[in-house]
Write a structure and sequence with these properties.
mainly alpha; Leucine-rich Repeat Variant; elongated
Length: 541
């Protein structure tokens, strides 16, 4: 980003250190004397030196404010404004001084454009303490000089959410750098706040300047989501941009929208998966996941990357294959290998198992069942891995009854000592046995289902959400973030299993009947659980 050009002493800029207690052998008190007594050049150099001292010149703010307001030399005033910003950004004590923002706002009306420019910059250095300067900075967006408007846009991004109104105006400025820095400033805001500028950002994607397009796309990656299908056409146009960074961020932004409208981004994402740095490759994989079945052309490349040396990338690739779904069924074998590999990290094996559950119940999935049952049976395996392997078998539904060893494998975790790690594993196995065996379930299944009915801390798994963050030279490379989404009260699964087991077995367990009665009579309970308990009790009574 363009920065205000700091005034300085010829030949010494490379020796400056903002955190040093002295600059060129002098401390803040020495430079304050020069600021008050020297000629124009000396005063200017003293102001610059105080800025370089940063927080160690906190006691100089009063003198610098006086120079900013009263010095006849615009060069001294400009250096004073800039120094106040440099000190403030390193010293909370200075930033919070009530007289600082008003003094700098007044300087926004200075006759000299460089003073106005540096005053705007300094106000941005105040962060939230510069919020009172909003009106002054917005007025500065109409300044006749582009460098003033540019710094005002930069500052508005740092004083708080109220600055967005002015930034939307600045993105329509005639000057390329004003528009670029206004867009870049939106990176300071949370996605939900920055979303209000979506129309302006999309318009900037059509600018002749690649700097502006890059800035706009970097923000768009951050703010768009599945609700923004209407923005997809503008982003698709950017996929053919001559600038690689623009193309990549357009593809990543489209992937955050996802679905069919983002399918055109797949070739760009695959190129990033092959050639990008490791963080970009991870984002590309997560982005492909969001496009879902419309990214099925990526499956061969994704399968190859399952053998990559980067563990986190392998995990994101497994995630992507699950997002594509049944069209990625050719990946079943490699995913099973990943799940069964004891050298693979548990998080990656878990992701592979969840993805496997989405690839269908074809012959390859059926052939993998015996190997997966061995993992469920093995108490030496990670409990979370075993749990998600159970999920991967649900896709076969009642056909599991015809496969040897299924019941024994699901029963094995129920005989193990209950603890926090295997809680969900035991619940899932009891659910599967209840659904598959019905009234023939062994006693331990009923015991675990009772535990399940009493556990109000369980949600029903809905799926994964993933969001990519973009990449480029002007911003740090973002990260792909994945979260599990759950809903409602998971105890409905225990009720479903008991429904399949039937009234006769339930009546044999007074403790289960009592728990069902408690659930049926709890008013502030999830309605599905409450009504499910009532329905089941009618069959029992």
């Amino acid at each position: 980003m363009w920065r205000v050009v700091a005034v300085g002493l010829v030949g010494v800029l490379t020796f400056s250190h903002a955190q040093a207690q002295v600059f060129l052998g002098k401390g803040s008190q020495d430079w304050l004397k020069v600021l008050d007594q020297g000629d124009e050049a000396a005063r200017r150099n003293a102001a610059y030196a105080l800025g370089k001292l940063g927080s160690h010149a906190a006691d100089a703010t009063g003198a610098l404010l006086r120079r900013l307001a009263e010095d006849k030399s615009p060069k001294v005033r400009e250096a004073s404004a800039y120094a106040l910003g440099e000190i403030a950004k390193e010293s909370l004590k200075v930033t919070a001084q009530p007289q600082l923002a008003p003094g700098l706002v007044k300087a926004l009306a200075d006759q000299d454009p460089l003073v106005r420019r540096s005053a705007a910059y300094a106000l941005g250095c105040l962060g939230a303490y510069g919020a009172s300067a909003q009106a002054g900075l917005e007025k500065a967006l109409n300044d006749s000089r582009a460098e003033v408007r540019q710094n005002a846009a930069w500052a508005l991004g740092r004083i708080g959410n109220a600055g967005i109104t002015g930034l939307r105006q600045a993105m329509k400025d005639a000057d390329v750098f004003v528009k670029r820095d206004a867009a870049t400033s939106l990176m300071q805001f949370s996605p939900d706040k920055a979303r209000v500028a979506l129309p302006e950002l999309l318009n900037l994607c059509k600018e002749n300047s690649s700097d502006v397009r890059r800035a706009a796309l970097a923000v768009l990656v951050k703010v768009v989501n599945a609700e923004d299908a209407a923005a997809a056409e503008s982003l698709r146009q950017a996929l053919t941009d001559q600038d690689l960074e623009v193309r990549r961020n357009a593809a990543l932004a489209l992937s955050n929208i996802g679905g069919k409208g983002a399918a055109a981004a797949v070739p760009i994402l695959l190129d990033a998966l092959r050639k990008g740095d490791v963080e970009l490759r991870r984002q590309a994989a997560a982005g492909i996941r969001n496009i879902g079945e419309y990214a099925d052309s990526a499956v061969p490349d994704l399968v190859k990357v399952l053998r990559d040396s980067d563990e986190e990338l392998r995990r994101f690739v497994a995630l992507a294959l699950g997002g594509i779904g049944e069209k990625a069924s050719s990946a079943i074998g490699p995913l099973v290998e990943m799940i069964a590999d004891p050298k693979e990290k548990s998080d990656t094996r878990v992701e592979a198992a969840v993805s496997l559950s989405r690839l269908g119940a074809g012959q390859a999935a059926r052939d993998a069942v015996p190997r997966l049952l061995q993992i469920i049976e093995d108490p030496a395996q990670d409990s979370k891995v075993r749990e998600r392997v159970v999920w991967s078998l649900r896709v076969h539904n009642v056909k599991l009854r015809d496969i040897n060893g299924v019941f024994a494998a699901f029963a094995k975790p129920l005989s193990e000592k209950a603890n926090a790690d295997n809680r969900m594993l035991r619940y899932d196995c009891s659910y599967m046995l209840g659904v598959l065996q019905g009234s023939q379930v062994p006693g331990p299944v009923m015991d675990v289902l009772l535990e399940f009915l009493k556990d109000d801390g369980i949600q029903i798994y809905v799926g994964r959400t993933s969001k990519v963050g973009g990449a480029g030279q002007e911003i740090p490379t973002g990260k792909a973030n994945v979260e599990e989404v759950g809903k409602a009260d998971g105890r409905i699964m225990a009720i479903q299993a008991l429904t399949q087991i039937g009234a006769q077995r339930i009546m044999e367990r007074r403790d289960i009947v009592q728990q069902l009665q408690a659930l049926a009579n709890t008013k502030d309970l999830d309605s599905d659980v409450r009504e499910g308990a009532k329905t089941l009790l009618k069959k029992v009574n």
